[in-house]
Design a protein that fits this description.
alpha/beta; single chain; TIM Barrel; eight-stranded mixed β-sheet; six-stranded parallel β-sheet; binds zinc ion; globular; Urease, subunit C, domain 1; 30% helix; 2 domains; 418 residues
Length: 418
């Protein structure tokens, strides 16, 4: 089989190191070699002289709603705004856009109708183009939680859209098991209001017993649990009960940082949706955006400290929600680097190594390392010098997923010798 041999590359490895004038050899689905110095080639190798362009790991979006769509109309039963088939088509489009934006993996944060599970199969069978997808469940939470209040009770909506209402530990167990049966590999729990929901952030949406039962049921079947969490007490409770991923993490303080770092729990700060939403709404939202702005400021203060402490922070956000369309996924890197002040190299680590670790696949994805799967980007430019180069899809000359070129605009020279 023809190998791909990149020469004269700048390699950003995903874990804080760079190489210049380096080579990367891709053999079938794996990275066969990375290094500087002479590289031995074979007559049928495809040799690509990158003239200093960058090779980096494919990125991971760790909070993705493939079906989200800014309908702009409220109230609507959450996840029932459109028919399932139409939402599935939407998911196909947004996942194709995601992989073409340099994200070779996506970890879903929730979808209605078990759409994620079917889309994952379609991608793996080659029916459609998309990233490696970790399918998520409906939102598991209690009757009357913030999502469940998105429509009035007299509509008597009985269908399950994006929500699986559950009350009591037994129903939490049953809901988790049902979602796993439908293909979810991660269960989404709405633990608090806040962070863009209509519920107050202080409000705990479930009891400790309910959360414990749901997490235990998921772990017994090998599934992870992630939680929409926007206050300190809920963060600490989730850590006590071994929740796997903390979404949003508003209200994080020094004690939370210490315990999150100690447990290695990944955190998805997802600041861009509230930032863009409150910018777009201005002062028209009757105080709603004031509290959002306060949360954004608080997170911007605490995040550099959390990053310096070694927290496993990752990228991902609520693309498709109001005023936050699908598409500009790579803007997150510039946002955290330029607006929050996180070192660019660290943000790249969030996007790559940390994302792979969140997936539980840190040993085979997330860095440019010999032996790992070849999920790689070839970038015209150097993201360390200008992180914004990743935002223009034209700068992504090559996108490889498991050694397969999802996009091939590589500068080819087919030179037989070096
Ligand atoms: Zn979300």
């Amino acid at each position: 089989m023809t190998r791909l041999v990149f020469t004269h590359a700048t390699v950003i490895d995903g874990d804080g190191s760079t190489l210049t004038e380096a080579h990367v050899v891709v053999d079938a689905d794996r990275i066969a070699a990375v290094g500087t110095g002479p590289v031995s080639t074979r007559p049928d190798d495809r040799i690509i002289d990158l003239h200093g362009r960058t090779v980096m790991p494919g990125m991971v979006n760790c909070h993705f709603h493939a079906t989200y769509h800014n309908l702009g109309a409220a109230p609507a039963p959450f996840g029932l705004e459109e028919p399932a088939a139409l939402q599935a088509v939407r998911a196909v489009n947004s996942l194709e856009l995601l992989v073409n934006s340099g994200f070779t993996s996506a970890v879903s944060a929730g979808a209605p109708f078990a759409i994620d599970a079917s889309i994952k199969v379609a991608i793996e069978r080659g029916l459609i183009v998309g990233p490696r997808l970790v399918p998520c469940s409906r939102d598991v939470s209690t009757t009357g939680h913030a999502g469940d209040r998105s429509y009035p009770p007299h509509w008597q909506v009985g269908a399950l859209g994006a929500i699986r209402p559950s009350d009591g530990p037994d129903e939490f167990r049953r809901s988790v098991r049902a979602e796993i049966k439908e293909g979810a590999e991660i269960i989404k729990m709405f633990v608090t209001g806040g962070h863009g929901t209509i519920g107050p952030k202080e409000q705990l949406e479930m009891s400790r017993e309910e959360m414990a039962a749901g997490i235990e049921a998921a772990h017994l079947r090998g599934a992870k649990v992630r939680g929409h969490i926007a206050n300190r007490e809920a963060i600490l409770m989730a850590l006590d009960l071994r929740m796997d991923i903390i979404d949003h993490a508003d209200g994080m303080d020094d004690e939370c940082i210490e315990r999150i770092v100690e447990t290695g729990t990944p955190v998805v700060p997802s600041m861009m949706f509230p930032a863009r939403f409150s910018q777009a709404m201005g002062d028209s939202a009757l105080g709603f955006t004031d509290s959002m702005k306060a949360d954004i400021d608080a997170m911007a203060d605490v995040l550099p400290k959390a990053n310096a402490a070694g927290m496993r922070l990752v990228l991902g956000d609520d693309y498709g929600a109001m005023f936050f369309p699908h598409g500009p996924y790579a803007e997150e890197l510039a946002y955290y680097s330029e607006e929050v002040g996180i070192p660019t190299m660290d943000v790249i680590r969030w996007a790559t190594k940390h994302g792979a670790e969140l997936m539980g696949r840190g040993d085979e994805l997330g860095t440019v390392t010999a032996g790992k799967l070849a999920d790689l980007l070839v970038v015209d430019g150097n993201p360390l010098a200008d992180i914004a180069v990743l935002q223009d899809r034209a700068n992504l000359l090559g996108i490889l997923k498991g050694g397969h070129l999802v996009k091939d605009c590589l500068p080819d020279h087919h030179s037989p010798t070096l």
